Amino acid sequence: MLNILFGECPEAIYNTSMYFDNQYLDCWMEDPFAAEVIASIEKGKILSPQAIDTKALGVIPTTKISGGVKTILLVKNLPQKIFNASTCGNNCAKYLLKIGRMQEVTINLHHLMTFPGRRFELRIVNTDVIVHNMHEMIENAVNLL
Length: 145
Prior knowledge:
Blueprint: E1 2-6, H1 16-23, H2 32-42, E2 44-48, E3 51-54, E4 58-61, H3 67-77, E5 83-84, H4 93-102, E6 105-109, E7 122-124, E8 129-131, H5 134-141
Parallel strand pairs: 1-6, 1-7, 5-6
Antiparallel strand pairs: 2-3, 3-4, 7-8
Helix pairs in contact: 1-3
């Protein structure tokens, strides 16, 4: 399940871009999930673990992908850690939910991210409430920010 901790979180990793640059493993780029996320968000294709061919920038090193994609890949590959997902745009939300359906993960947010679809399931850690749609999420999270 995707767990969200809103507001200050001392144990969260805030500089996800720098953390990714120093921690990612080549095998992460061999995962079909990484290829899906990079194709969708970066409009790119993984050429090798160190090179991504993007529509906008051409071939770039993996360390130059967007902060949102870096955060998604960190959440997926290091589920025991808490990452600040406020670096992610709303286009990352569906992938965070997808990861949450695969494994138990916790992210930290400092804003209300818009999650897609009419129904989803995630847990707000601060209040230990499971929400099923954006209305419930806003109702339960607005006072936590």
